[in-house]
């Protein structure tokens, strides 16, 4: 059985002897999504590969295959830190329903860099002049700095407009070298939710800086790396900063003296508050309204009092027979690629012509005699009567009314039903739907329903006698028909019967939809006849075990993780080739290797902050594999293919026994 790979992250489970692989089930929701990693095809002209280094490639140089109903954009281009001829492309994929995700692709074979040296001092384009020695190295650095400064562009979006509207001159902006963008908040390691909610304000366009290039606060350089200040002049915005250069060997950043200011860009926008104020002053009209019947009005003819505003109609309701149309609308403004909307305003346009027959039916209600003694099943549609203003209503001459039940509208437990009435006169039809309540109800007892419920079915593609219960999940079963007007039924849990591993136990949860205040009830179903499963194991932390098996224990940044290459190589050769995971920090067990592991974080959904050094019941849930004497941690491995990965075992529920299943999580391959 082959290992299952998910992009840059692969997790397998192996035994100490046979080394089998445990792959995730293919019957999950993730597998139903399109495999964009396979569907997306990137191409680039061979001449560009010959003449350009990976760092010089532009977004416009890359062609992307089209996918129906999917919008694909290049978010960033980042050269590999280890293989200089490789380019890492991050794509934003937006589906028809508005959901978006990121896909990372690679292109290799670009021109070899002529030099890997980094510039030492800033050059021209600075606010404060510097003394430059005109050497080839300095000249190259000058060009690099100019390219960086010229590549900075404002990000125009609804969220960024809110920021710029409220922010003051000299505000601090934060640079994220992982995305080559500037944000309103600092990057927080391990906090994916906080990072996702940051607002991008500026970005580098068609340019990727060399490894280790940082920007620094222009006046407060100490400990202010990756921070810049905002320059604001009316609706014109730019950034001011110094340059810094990080040295991977010394772990220090050299900060240069020159202060740079990017080219000011205009960003004119209207805020939501301005739109809300404006819409309060607007009115709607309908051309030639006096000569248009209300039932013939169409929303495309509605006019806004200010033709310079863009209107979007949210709802258009004809009040038939009343000569009125109720319209809900917003006004919008475009900010970059986004559309910002005002609040919704509702206006009633009056003065339409009224059809006499239809107007006569305004306010007419539908009744049923002695309905409190009639059940829903016994309704006779010919017995419905009409009334208006609490008095019987008679149709005019030559007018008729017919009634029919709306399909699936009956609720015998609540005594309600929907009825469609068709009024006809001289080949003119008016259709109205009535919701009628007050019929005799039928009692519902949830416990009685649960006791009699047996409708659970195994997926017909599964052969029980040949399928181990270890391969079965609650998703392997489906529910049959149940009375959706009375109860909601869900399969909420599934587990192997520890007393007999050839049996699988399902838990169903029932919710009463008729009677308020009734507690949920559950019922277990034991499904027999499966192939006996393996021994049931319980772990010191079941969620850690669940996430390990589901490939969710760690979150890996596929770009930043490669920055650990030198430290990983050093760790593997040391006496402690391990990492520690404690208090939301991932560090090296070898004390000679300082700093945290870059681009690797504990999954926040685990609900724990430690894995290796938290003590019994408080964070020691794994052990390294292979063992390193009595040291705790997770083992760093490099295999023959050049793949770096983590290997570990889980600790069982006695907090002492180490399971014999080995899990490995792939980090990156130096040859890819």
TrEMBL record:
Transmembrane segments: none annotated. It is a lipid-anchor. It comes from the Bacteria. Keywords: Lipoprotein, Palmitate, Repeat, Signal. Residues 1-23 form the signal peptide. Residues 113-140 have a biased composition (Polar residues). The keyword Lipoprotein applies. This is Variable surface lipoprotein. It comes from Mycoplasma miroungigenitalium. The lineage of its organism: Bacteria, Bacillati, Mycoplasmatota, Mollicutes, Mycoplasmataceae.
